[in-house]
Specification:
323 residues; mainly alpha; 2 strands; globular; transmembrane; hydrolase; SCS3; transmembrane helix
């Protein structure tokens, strides 16, 4: 009598990978190595280059409203490099308002890319993208602006022995010495770099985590992860400024042309952010200060863009670009 074949043993169920949009791509974690390489090359250059090692080549840093803004002495009249000047155009109109540029670029992606069009699925993607932006903004705000009082960077500076000191040199120093202990106590009670500068003091003596490195790494990382995730297939078109395919370009509708220019804008912001990060690696901060800022920034990017790939519950909250 024939026997029926036994059904194969059941296998334990696993969480299936998320369904991805047709054009979605994800940045591999190894790509983050570009940041330590950038800091390493810049730091090495600052150590071995006679120009970068010149004692007066380090003016006040480029970072906005954080401890590094006043940790160094006043800038010389003639900096040895344009990017070592606090008033260089890229610092004034890009770095000092860096989060505004990130916000504009991020918003342009949400408005222009088809993956965020108004459908049931895209509505969820839009919400998750907003959560990712909110998390990055919160990290930036707590680190550089406010953390139940002074920001994390200023708090760490004070905890490691730093504080607000009077600028005393020559005749000015003698005049300040005669002002009495009251002014000294007032300066010592200042707990933020911005307040110290406003009081005429100098932020010195502690470990100054590079807020400039932190901000620029997060800005470039967020934009690259988002841009590649939602429009990976369009990146090459965005990078191509060739006019040799006039026939094909005439067939493109205005919406597609607009999306291409949005991607160019996003890539331009990310590219300039990387360049200013490289300039920071050369001209400002100690090795440890730069690498501590980098470590915090990479932790922020990992939590927002790479941890969701391994933790389904977290992926449901923050999602993945283009997924």
């Amino acid at each position: 009598m024939a026997t029926r074949d036994k059904s194969p043993p059941s296998t334990p169920t696993t969480t299936p990978p998320p369904k991805t949009h047709a054009s979605s791509h994800q940045i591999p974690p190894i790509a983050l190595i570009v940041y330590p390489i950038t800091l390493l090359v810049g730091s090495l250059y600052s150590s071995i280059s006679p120009t970068a090692r010149f004692p007066h080549a380090h003016p006040a840093p480029l970072a906005p409203s954080i401890a590094t803004d006043i940790n160094l002495s006043s800038p010389p009249e003639s900096p040895v490099n344009y990017f070592a000047r606090k008033d260089n155009v890229f610092n004034v109109y890009f770095v000092k308002i860096g989060w505004l540029w990130l916000t504009l670029a991020f918003a342009s992606l949400l408005i222009s890319q088809p993956v965020y069009r108004k459908t049931a699925t895209s509505s969820g993607r839009l919400t998750q993208a907003t959560v990712r932006y909110a998390l990055a903004t919160t990290a930036w705000y707590l680190m550089t602006q406010w953390f139940f009082g002074p920001p994390v960077i200023d708090r760490s500076f004070v905890i490691t022995g730093g504080g607000c000191e009077r600028v005393a040199s020559g005749v000015a120093g003698a005049a300040q010495a005669a002002t009495g202990a009251g002014e000294v106590a007032a300066l010592e009670s200042v707990l933020t770099a911005a307040a110290c500068k406003a009081a005429g003091g100098k932020w010195a003596g502690g470990h100054d985590v590079s807020g400039h490195v932190f901000m620029l790494v997060v800005v470039t990382g967020v934009l690259v992860c988002e841009g590649v995730g939602v429009a990976g297939d369009a990146i090459c078109k965005a990078l191509s400024f060739s006019t040799g395919e006039e026939g094909n370009r005439k067939d493109e509708d205005e919406g597609e042309k607009g999306r291409v220019w949005v991607l160019r804008f996003v890539l331009a912001v990310a590219g300039l952010g990387w360049w200013m990060l490289f300039m920071t690696a050369i001209w400002f901060h100690t090795w440890l200060e730069k690498w501590s800022g980098l470590t915090i920034a990479l932790g922020t990017l990992y939590a927002i863009y790479f941890l969701p790939r391994k933790v389904p519950a977290w992926r449901k909250v923050v999602g993945m670009p283009g997924v």
